[in-house]
Design a protein that fits this description.
With 165 residues, this protein is of the alpha+beta class. The chain contains four helices and eight strands; from the N terminus they run αβααβββββββα. It starts with 14 loop residues before the first helix and ends in a 5-residue tail after the last helix.
Length: 165
């Protein structure tokens, strides 16, 4: 008589994170990272919060690459806070490793802007993290969601795609 071991609970499907279609940027923007001691825990493994900082850095640099300076958004009275975040950790990254944060905007509808991320090895062969982030344009002074993106932001995004509404 053999004893059956209880099966391990399965994580829910990550198809929402893994499906990355309908992108405004056809190509990924790449932001290289070298893991420093302050990115890691006591065991030399990247702390989960470091990934979020890297994704924000990559997003800000991606926006800069199309002519949107974050400081200019602030001067216009616009902020782009994260309102939704989904992260899937596939494997750990260790102290001293070099990785690439790949990001691209997938959709901009009204004042919502969706981004996808992949953190991969330099050669692209190892996948460490996949994520999705949704930003919303907020009036910094009033603390309320804007009715539309500032014209300069909308115009810069229009350079990427004519499908911005």
């Amino acid at each position: 008589m053999s004893e059956e071991k209880p099966s391990q609970p399965k994580l829910p499907s990550t198809s929402a994170i893994d499906s990355q279609s309908n992108c405004l940027f056809e190509n990924w923007f790449e932001y290289p990272i070298r893991v420093q001691p302050h990115h890691t825990d006591y065991a030399g493994i990247v702390w989960h919060g470091s990934y979020l900082a890297w994704m924000e850095e990559a997003r800000v640099e991606c926006l800069r690459s199309i002519g949107i300076e974050f400081a200019d958004l602030v001067a216009l009275g616009c902020d782009l806070p994260v309102v939704e975040l989904s992260v899937r950790y596939h494997r750990s990254i260790q102290l001293g490793m070099a990785v690439v944060v790949r990001t691209r905007m997938t959709e901009a509808t009204g004042v919502r802007i969706n981004w996808h991320y992949r953190i991969v090895s330099n050669d692209g062969q190892q996948l460490y993290v996949t994520a999705e982030v949704t930003l919303v344009a907020v009036d910094r002074e009033q603390g309320k969601i804007m009715r539309q993106l500032p014209a300069s932001v909308k115009n810069a995004l229009a350079k990427v795609s004519a499908s911005i509404s």
